[in-house]
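dumping this here before i forget
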Amino acid sequence: MTFEPLTAERRRQQTRDYLLQAAARVFAERGYHAASIDEVAAAAGFTKGAVYSNFKNKEDLFLALIESAYNQELAKLRTTYESSDVPPEDRLGDFAGLIRGELGSLPDNWGMLYLEFSLYAMRNPSARERLTELEEMDIAAISELIRDGRERMGVELDESPESAARIIVALFRGIGLMRSLSPESVDAKLIADALTFIVRGLGQVREAPERGPPTT
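structure:
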């Protein structure tokens, strides 16, 4: 068996990963505003200095947590989406399983945490700018997957990949908030129904209705 040496870079990455895992627990228990850097450090088994050597402040830590969640979701989505030439509508079970797994890996109140931080960001320009950047990166990545999928299947639709991606993100952001308020309401059937709704919407070209003469 070959072991990779624990370099300074790998050690730093491990520390960062532990801190993000601890931050997820602390933020879930305490909320964004009530949580403290001291609590995150204690939960991770490190000093407060270790947190500040990896993150500028609590805002930077929470944004890194969001970015990490996005990256993990996108990596799994790419693997599922690109694993076969079968049309997405024939693989709803794969996507439903992926989403259930991702929801299960996040705190039940993740939607509420995201909303709490979003409200904070709306009043703090630096946080708002960074959160918007992360949102746009997430939407751009999903847009690219949709574009690639359409090209593989030879599908041309009126809706742009960007618009489709924004709708998908908005829908599941809402489902995440719903899960925070009422976890039992977000079951496997709701996720499957949401995916079916998306696939049907992406698979239909809608023509604008003809306008008749104005009525008085």
